[in-house]
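Now for one protein, fold included:
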Amino acid sequence: MVMPECPLYTQTHAEQADELASRWGLVRYYHTPTGLGLVLDDTGLQLKDFDNPKQQGVMVDFLSGASEYRRAHGGAKKEPIAKAIGLKGNQGRVVIDATPGLGRDAFVLAGLGCTVYMVERSAVVAALLEDGLRRLATKAPELAARFRLLHGNSIEVLKQWPHEAAEAVYLDPMFPHRKKSALVKKEMKVFQALLGADPDADGLLAPALALASQRVVVKRPNYAEALAGHSPNMAITSKKHRFDVYLTQQ
């Protein structure tokens, strides 16, 4: 990964880029590279495909209108993910999101009062999430405080969980998309180019079941088979996805 410099960079940006590259083990470039790279400017940190300069970059933006609208007006506890996690009343839960991606589902859960641990193995995606949380903290510090960001292989982290007990583990592993859409063309296309396939996704289920005190929730496309071929106790469906729920406390 790269941290290209451009005329828009201030000295502060350059110093931040150096610090980010050092902390996440990234390569700092001083010229426009080819392929994928991280760019830091006034809007924040974003992942860009320099082979497609017209394509918009991908960033974690918890302050976007879409994110805030979904949190404030998306039905809150009526959302399928909230039902799947088992949220009731004002009860907050500790949830581990072991495949956070751009953090959108984690943001909804945090907005509903959950403490959300995001475990991300890609240094690039973790850096994007960290930047999103940094900007969120400037506008909504109480909401940002509900997040915990961990960098590591989720399978290993779940097996050796050193933090507070979690009622639920949430999994949304990468899955090939059948239909083209704006999301697939932009964000998922770039993410799949960055992360590749997710061949060890099945390996997430067993440690998640062993760790969660109440349930594991797996988000799947409606046409997809159950993770690891393990049938859930129940499923909550939406138009495009379903949430397979595995109860760990019978």
Summary: Residues 1-9 have pLDDT under 50 and may be disordered. Residues 65-247 form a domain with the Rossmann fold fold (CATH 3.40.50.150). The longest strand covers residues 215-221.
